[in-house]
Amino acid sequence: MPVPMDLPRAMHKTFVRDKEACASFRKTCPQSLRRLSRLRRISVPAGLLLLLVAGQSVSGQVKMPRLDFHERTLANGLRIVSAENRTSPTVAIQVWYHVGSKDDPAGRSGFAHLFEHMMFKSTRNMKSEMMDRLTEDIGGFDNAFTNDDTTVYYEVVPSNYLETLLWAEADRLSGLNVDAQNFKSERDVVKEEYRQTVLAPPYGRLDYFLQQKSFTAHPYKRPTIGSIEDLNAAALADVQAFHASFYRPDNATLVVVGDFDQQQLDTWIDKYLQPIAKPGSPLPRVTVKEPQRKKEVRFTENGPNVPLPAVGITYLTPPITDADAESLRVAQTILSAGESSRLYHALVYEQQIAQSASATANLLEDVGLFHLNAIAASGRKPEDVEASLLAEVKKMQDAPVSQAELDKAINQIVTSQLLERETNDGKALALGTATVLLGDPNRVNTDLVRLQAVSTADVQRVMKKYFNSENRLVLYYLPEPAKSKPEGR
Ligand SMILES: [Zn+2]
Asked: How far apart are the CA of 19 and the centre of ligand 1, in A?
């Protein structure tokens, strides 16, 4: 009999990979957006949850319950971070490969994402889609996502299936069939995904163009989804070389959180993962540095079926490990979180100049990108939308935000992190992020203090430091000009 899961079954549906065309936004969107999309599935009211799970420090600030974890590195380089949590009879397993779309070979964009699909195909011991059978058929779930820096595979299963999943993850790490049949079938799926997520939606090209144009040298300029031309140009040998370069134990981190015994876990790891050999070749790493921007750059792109003009503005920001990362997160929240946020209130509600307006701090491993996006309201010009966006930036540079606004923004971020930590899957995601992207798993226990230390002066300082005209890229995304009618008609 299946053991009850820590989330109702209905909530799992959004996790399930669509076998025909996986939900690309989850695969390619910034981690911050992915987290938001996960949070929507949790129905406990945020205020209640804060009361339930959080302690209050003497200064009145919320404290995150400590996450005790165990670290281990095998001789073959595989890193393991595990945390026991017996509150539900389930276990979350994640394998983080430190390869993302920034590692796609030149002229072969989309490879990291293509591999995410390939990893669900047949292996030495498993039929294609067997991972889904090993999880969904016992009331669990599995999926994966790819972003600029990492490719992550995850499962949540009743805890008595942990050994099976460790065997299966070892099997697809060491014995994936990178053959012509699997490659061609998944390439077709990815091409269809590109059509559905980039070409078909009215604003699908906007973020694609913004990413391409926002970097001049760094491979972050290649969107994760890739391009049809590059995918068509790929040969089986390219795909095999990519797999050999990055899918290896010394480029992987296994995260296990939930109902298990550490000693038993170590025994299974010794049995299934320890024997995988470490390749002798060095791991390729991106060393290209994106140069600082020196002056404002502007572009106009036209697209088919664009109902209303859109404006995208980007600023280069420091990497995710930088001391300013938390202040940028807070700035994003003040600008963009909810209907009381500055952008929504000014552009959508008061001025009615835009039908939507948002900010995203896309904090990445090598260099970050802060986006401001807005879609014009009917009859409004992109020039006016741009002016309103920049006016909101200027307000935050000219005067500090109020303490109440700051406190609210920090509470919003803290609440989302506490909600995430309520599940084994969320704890594993936090541990994986801290280990692979922040370089220290203990950041799961220290980052809240950093966030709560952000002051109104910090927010004003980062707005002045990064949001200047030299560091600005502006893109207008407009409907295609009306075609002139043939003469005489
Ligand atoms: Zn996909």
From this structure: 9
